[in-house]
Design brief:
- The protein is mainly α and 432 residues long.
- The chain contains 17 helices and 7 strands.
- It has helices at 14-24, 43-48, 59-80, 83-87, 90-132, 139-152, 157-169, 201-204, 208-229, 256-280, 282-308, 323-328, 337-343, 352-356, 365-376, 387-397, 423-426, and strands spanning 4-5, 35-36, 315-316, 332-333, 382-383, 407-408, 420-421.
- Helix 5 (90-132) crosses helix 7.
- The longest helix has 43 residues, at 90-132.
- It is globular, with a radius of gyration of 23 Å.
Length: 432
Amino acid sequence: MASIVSQKSDTLSVDDTLMITEVRNTKYSEDDLPEFTPMPWTLQEIKDAIPARLFVRDTTRGLLYLARDVLMAATLWKLATYIDLFCQRPDIRVRLSNPGAETLRWAMWVVYWWFQGLVFTGIWVIGHECGHGAFSASKSVCDVIGFITHSMLWTPYFSWRISHHRHHMNHASMERDEVYVPKTRSDLGIPLKANEEIDWDEYFGDTPIYTMYMLIRQQLLAFPAYLLMNVSGQKNYPKWTNHFDPNSILFTKGQRNQVILSNLGLLAMAWVVKYSCVRWHGSEVVKYYGIPWLLVTHWFIMITYLHHTDPMLPHYRGKAWNFQRGAAATVDRNFLGWQGRFFLHDVAHYHVIHHFFPKMPFYHGPEATQYLKTFIGDHYAYSDKPVFKALWDSYNRCQFVEDEGSVLFYRDKQGRSVRRSAKAYVEGQYAN
């Protein structure tokens, strides 16, 4: 069964837990859930388990990966210029008929959009590496490449780097994390009663069609909405918090010029797009650039959402949180198989190690993960569930967390969880 698993085969997944309840035909009980105790190790102990050579950044190697991505993007772009010409040839129209030629033309464009979207996303991942300082030991190299690549893909490089760094430093903290902060029971207005006493349809009674609409909206609009309006971000921030206002609560006074520079990068990109629309027509810009960019937004949101949203992953409050526990509260996924590994630079396959050590280059992720798994054992999470099924399942199952408690797990549309925290953490006895 595709599932969240760790090194040990006896670790239960979400599907396992729910299936056992159904097979036993028993009433849901929190006492029957598998118990979770946060990891006890320090970050230094974990780092010592990984060879020092895996932390070394190779600028030349990083540049070669970037050059490969740019070459692939240019090649795909060039090949796409022949699609309409080929399908409009008289001999092709005669051989395939007009409807057949049009079907072929759209199919070829879909293939272009799919692969160019992946390539563009890979270039975005390179910019992400730069933001962490993982691309090169030179800060200048990282900032120049990161600024260019992210501006080209409508991401305010310095502004997003600042908030993303804060996300890494506070991941899975209910009070301080920057993004994918769970809603609580009180946020949704759900009364604190026994599950069977609550009319759950009143809160989560959406039809599958409407749920699909909301999920698609998330995939296409969530990242711009986060940048513009702090959607899914820390709810304690003021209204209209965004990544473009130099005076935003997200930034210090010393970071003001970086925010302005990020905005100028996007303004320059807006000019390039406007000029391209005038020079080659807007429909051509949409075909060659717009739709692949939209897919970057989709893949980025899907990857990050699935990294941080799963019923088996904990969130923490107060003293129960520390950096390494937050770092482990994410999951590696077999994301699109070989395509995810090749085009996306393993960003989804080896994300857990990235949260522990953000400056580690992505190309060391596979080997370093093996050392990490050996050391932290059951605290390492991996899923081989097909990612689109995982997206649907997590979107439906991860609804809210409780208002109280120091170690929290998502609850579904019937108020059910799949794990429970150890008794000491329920009672507030932080056995660190």
